Amino acid sequence: MKDKKKEPGERLQKVLAQAGLASRRHAEEIIQQGRVQVNGEVIRTLGTKVSPDDQIVVDGNLLKMPPKKYDYYLLHKPTGYITSVTDPQGRKTVMDLMQGIPRRVYPVGRLDYDTSGLLVLTNDGELAHRLMHPSYGVEKTYRVEVRERIPKQARQRLETGVDLEDGKTAPARVREVVQMGQDLRPCYEITIHEGRNRQVRRMFKAIGYPLISLKRIRFGPLGLEEQMAPGNFRSLTPLEVQKLRQEVELK
């Protein structure tokens, strides 16, 4: 069962600035002058956290926040790109693929440089935070290729947990994928809910079967369509966004 976590709110001065009332620094002065009430209580302490359900009054006027516009995208990340907004070394990032979008978005989690597959990008910070938080246990499924078939005993090590340098992994689900055609490498799908650095690669290396390729094909309720070519992206449908929010207990 997933643990419910109460999410922290936004700092009051940031909320005032986002509402267009004042700059962040001026908002701090307004708070210190005792001109702001939250749920009927005068607030003078900087850094006080507020939530969307709180009633904020400034100089006797109820603060009305403009509705936020969020964007949600699913990208088929190719290999050879890093999951970052910028890179000091000048390498290609996933943002180089997100051309023509109206607002800036950010990757949810990461896929390594040499890993391809499904990546969600959004400017919905609360949703992104929950999707990455380990307490919500969002499942991720990867398709891997190895040089030779993995015997059942070795696969069971993945399913019960593998000892890595940063601790034993949680149990995973593993199944062999039958590929049609000649000269195809053995293929498996593994589902985990942790998000350690290069975890899947390290798990297979630990059991003696290093990966040739790694591709994420599912993230929570979202699946990567076979017809979506690497480098392409699309907007999530309202139903997909709803399912993502339900996954992490957001209304």
Features of the shown structure:
251 residues, alpha+beta, Structural Genomics Hypothetical 15.5 Kd Protein In mrcA-pckA Intergenic Region, Chain A, Pseudouridine synthase, nine-stranded mixed beta sheet, four-stranded antiparallel beta sheet, 17 strands, elongated, disordered N terminus
Q: Regarding CATH, which class of the largest domain?
A: Alpha Beta
Globular, elongated, flat, extended or rod-shaped: what is the shape? elongated
> Percent range for helical residues?
10-25%
Strand-pairing-aware structural class: alpha+beta
Overall residue-averaged pLDDT value: 90
**Count the strands?**
17
> Remind me, CATH topology of the largest domain?
Pseudouridine synthase
Strand content: 15-25%
Looking at CATH, the homologous superfamily of the largest domain is Pseudouridine synthase
Question: How would you characterize this protein structure?
Answer:
With 251 residues, this protein is an alpha+beta fold. The protein folds into two domains: 10-62, RNA-binding S4 domain (Structural Genomics Hypothetical 15.5 Kd Protein In mrcA-pckA Intergenic Region, Chain A, Roll), CATH 3.10.290.10; 72-247, Pseudouridine synthase, CATH 3.30.2350. The chain contains six helices and 17 strands. The protein has helices spanning 12-18, 24-32, 125-132, 152-160, 199-206, 238-247; strands spanning 10-11, 36-38, 41-42, 49-50, 56-58, 61-62, 72-77, 106-107, 116-122, 140-145, 163-164, 167-168, 173-177, 187-192, 213-219, 222-223, 233-235. A hairpin with an 8-residue loop joins strand 8 and strand 9 (116-122). Helix 1 (12-18) packs across helix 2. The longest helix has 10 residues, at 238-247. The radius of gyration is 22 Å and the shape is elongated. The protein starts with 9 loop residues before the first strand and ends with a helix.
